[in-house]
Specification:
Blueprint (H helix, E strand, L loop, with lengths): L16 E2 L2 H18 L2 H23 L16 E3 L3 E2 L10 H5 L9 H4 L3 H12 L10 H9 L4 H12 L11 H10 L2
Antiparallel strand pairs: 1-2, 2-3
């Protein structure tokens, strides 16, 4: 069961939902780090446990989901997990890059451990759907390039070249070119 964005009973017929698993992973990673720097072993352990569960849930339910129970679902990423259905959408954009992008932002270092778990083939499928023309000058294109780098080898090399040329206005306001390039270079 995913960790729900709406913890109480939902007034919608589709019940509760979870959208950005990556933000939740970041939050639990932050709790772990806070426990470390504050000297609270209990806080660190709680953060570790929540982080591990959130990352496993994101891998299983969002980034490389088993969609056999949902035969009509024709996408590679489940960006909205509802109690009773799966959606490939966001609350804010119809752009094809948005459903994958919302599951990657803010792409902390800990993300590499679970977002690439589906392997090179899954990364390729996600990117084929998110940026079908190979143009990363789209919403979340910078995060999608970071994701592409996790496929390693020639994909990481290509991601680095594209990131260097990505127009400044296409780098998300929560990201920087230096972090984008450092992320990609550290995963080559």
């Amino acid at each position: 069961m995913p960790p729900w964005a709406r913890r109480t009973a939902s007034p919608t017929p589709d019940r509760r939902n979870q959208e950005s698993s990556s933000e939740a992973v970041s939050a639990w990673n932050g709790l772990t780090r806070w426990g470390q720097v504050s000297g609270s072993r209990a806080t660190e352990q709680l953060g570790d446990w929540l982080l591990a569960n959130e990352a496993a849930s994101a891998e299983r339910d969002v980034l490389d989901p088993d969609l056999r129970p949902f035969p009509g679902f024709q996408h590679t990423v489940v960006s909205l997990n509802w109690g009773g259905k799966r959606d490939h959408a966001t609350w804010f954009s119809a752009d094809p890059a948005a459903p994958a992008g919302i599951e990657l932002i803010p792409m902390p270092a800990v993300a590499a451990d679970y977002v690439a778990a589906g392997g090179k083939q899954q990364i390729g499928k996600v990117l084929d759907e998110a940026v079908p023309e190979g143009d990363y000058a789209v919403q979340f294109g910078d995060y999608l390039l970071m994701y592409r780098a996790l496929a390693s080898g020639s994909q990481a090399t290509a991601a680095l070249a594209l990131a260097r040329e990505l127009p400044a206005e296409d780098i998300d306001t929560g990201n920087t070119r230096s972090y984008l390039l450092a992320w990609i270079m550290s995963h080559q």
